[in-house]
Specification:
The chain contains 11 helices and 9 strands. With about 280 residues, it is of the alpha/beta class. It has one domain (about 5-200, about 215-265): 2-enoyl-CoA Hydratase, Chain A, domain 1, CATH 3.90.226. The strands form 2 sheets. Strands 1-2-3-4-6-9 form a 6-stranded mixed beta sheet, with helices on both faces. Strands 5-7-8 form a 3-stranded mixed beta sheet. Helix 2 runs parallel beside helix 4 and helix 5 (about 125-135) crosses helix 6 (about 160-180). The mean pLDDT is about 95.
Length: about 280
């Protein structure tokens, strides 16, 4: 197993500002690299991560992609400055923005390589779309998760096709409707993640999964992923659901509830629907 880590290089023929890519023997490590804001999602990170997955998917020498987050958390959801900007977006701007986020999840979901995502610290809001679109998810024991959108007066629309397909409608109702925080063990029980380990065991667990994939034919892995998507009914990157969910969130951001929820969040007060 050590061989996959022996020849890691920082070389990458694409330049990125918000992520870092390391290339090893048949393996690529992609790290979200905005640790000062707990790797919060902003337009640049969304764009670069989408480009990175498309680029790595096109490379014949890469068989496994490992996605992680630098710093204290995997991803804390939407960037605060990004959220403030959303409040003044036109519907057209909101629609385009939501479609870009959906394209990120699609790039991961439809990737032909095995995708292992390793989470720690926090996995909030849209970060769960990344998790749901991945093949294998390893979580540190103390990771905290939340689908917090309803508490902001919106819904987790763009991530919903991937999340519901992965955990089912019953678990989705529990987590999406309440917006409550939940533990890594609960995430495993809900089947959002595959395995929960102590933080100091993350790398060893990652290595074990890499080794599993290296024993498999890369062509067979790609075909098996297509097969699973076909059986699950999630095999069409042009499915109307992706456009529809983008439209839903575009409308919700501009809605009275959405505007009130975001205003309350930034003003550090309770929204008007929350009783004292």
């Amino acid at each position: 197993m050590e061989g996959y880590y022996d020849k890691i290089s920082d070389f990458c023929d694409m330049e990125f500002e918000t992520i870092k890519i390391q290339l090893g023997e048949s393996v690529a490590w992609v790290n979200l690299d905005r640790p000062e804001v707990r790797n919060a999602l902003n337009p640049e990170l969304i764009r670069e991560l989408t480009e990175a997955f498309r680029w790595l998917d096109s490379r014949d020498d890469i068989r496994v992609i490992v996605l992680k987050g630098n710093g204290p958390a995997f991803c804390a959801g939407a960037d605060l400055a990004y959220m403030k900007a959303m409040a003044s977006f036109s519907r057209g701007q909101n629609m385009a923005d939501a479609e870009r986020l959906s394209k990120l999840f699609q790039a991961i979901h439809f990737c032909n390589k095995a995708v292992i995502t390793v989470v720690h610290g926090a996995c909030i809001g849209g970060a769960n779309g990344i998790v749901a679109a991945s093949d294998i998810v390893i979580a540190a024991t103390d990771t905290r998760f939340a689908f917090s959108e309803v508490r902001l007066g919106i819904t987790p629309a763009t991530i919903s096709p991937f999340v519901v397909q992965k955990i089912g409608p019953t678990a989705a109702k529990e987590l999406m409707l309440t917006g409550r925080r939940f533990t890594a063990q609960e995430a495993k029980d809900f089947r959002l993640v595959n395995v929960v380990v102590a933080e100091d065991a993350l790398i060893d667990t990652e290595r074990q999964y890499i080794e599993h994939f290296m024993h498999a034919s890369p062509d067979a892995v790609a075909e098996c992923k297509k097969l699973l998507r076909l059986v699950e009914g999630a095999d069409d990157p042009y499915a109307p659901v992706f456009t529809h969910t983008s439209a839903i969130i575009a409308d919700q951001r501009a809605s009275q509830a959405g505007q009130e929820g975001m205003a309350a969040f930034f003003e550090k007060r309770k929204p008007r629907w929350e009783a004292d």
